[in-house]
Design a protein that fits this description.
Length: about 120
Amino acid sequence: MQLTPEQWPYGDIPIIVISHTLTTAPVNLKDKVELYSGTITQLIAQLKQSGYKHLYVDGGSTITSFLNLKLINQITITQAPVLLGAGIPLFGELETTIALEESKVTRFENDFVQFSYRVNYT
């Protein structure tokens, strides 16, 4: 799908795709995303050095990796009103128990429900 600049939802926000299998971005996204295949700790160091202080992390296995490195301090989960039956878990295996605290719940007109939590590594 080819998006116009007005349709691109991220504006000028840098988008980094962590992948060990992709070698090039799709043609229509080459100027919008950067592919990264190094370690998460190297990426965090590079981003800190560039002045970044906050990240949005998406994707079950990527989120699990960040959680296992204790790099996530807030988590937001959006629930869609659809029952899929079988599927893959939202998160992979965690190395420790993680408590989610101070919940905030937002209900949307389309019946989506969003849960936001502070992450407490025990």
